[in-house]
């Protein structure tokens, strides 16, 4: 299996870098963060209260400014302004406040500011990649579900050989929840000729996934034709519907679409259907455990914040959810490509 691919991360970093600009300008000109912090260092909660921000926007904005080296955490875990950040305070001469202000009315900055203040858009049906309750979802309309699923196809196709090669290699039954195109599963089944799998997603997304499986099966790769017979599709709502029991449950780019409380619910639901001795695998981009970067992921978190109900989380946050769900997280951090990686947790054997 091909695992030595050229890492295309520079492309996704440039794509996501727009979030850095928006968060920097919003932080300086619309939230006046540096003025608030100049008297004394603040805990995350204290700064959140001063700025009137809910938990999710705070956890997007503060790590981003740390990753930009403008803020940092001291030994008491309080945020303080770095030497560079001091040049964003009025009393420091020279400062770059007015220069940054040239962009303060940029449409993207104003939108980011509004979303940070509201913790997301007022109209939740504008969000992408999420289906929750009775709120209409773009993932349930044929045209938009196709558009948003196709948008992720190239990324999944590119990442899937390396992700599949780092998942357990064995005869097992894999459940791919929120599978989108299903590429990770197709690759993994190709590498594991005795394994079986289920692709779980919304019905309109599965219609697109089936087309990708058709094309995959017809490729001239050895064993590709047989993958189709070992795969089933299940339409449903992962937040409420019964999920099938599995040896391996894969959640690729799934948790980052949801707020913390929903991530905890999902972790528990996933843990409950993993068979004894089975494993939960998460493929995602992770914040540093001390929430100060990396910049590629704080940028990604800003974009996720704008378009979904989620953000990027640290491995420590994931591992806490896994433990609370009754699983045992491993300490292994497995990098893949595009600033993503894998982590896993296991369920004890009976
Ligand atoms: C960001 S995409 C990830 C797709 C794929 N795993 C990948 O990495 O390319 C999230 C997926 O979760 C699905 N999803 C969102 N809410 C869902 C729900 N309540 N039940 C089932 N699937 C859901 C979406 O339709 C979408 O395909």
Automatic annotation (TrEMBL):
CDD domains according to UniProt: AdoMet_MTases (cd02440)
Active-site residues from the entry: 256
Biological process (GO), any one: methylation
O-methyltransferase C-terminal domain ranges (all copies): 172-327
Keyword annotations from UniProtKB, A to Z: Methyltransferase, S-adenosyl-L-methionine, Transferase
Pfam families according to UniProt: Methyltransf_2
Keyword S-adenosyl-L-methionine carried by entry: yes
GO molecular function, one term: O-methyltransferase activity
Residues in the signal sequence: none
Protein name stated in the entry: Methyltransferase domain-containing protein
PROSITE patterns reported for this sequence: SAM_OMT_II
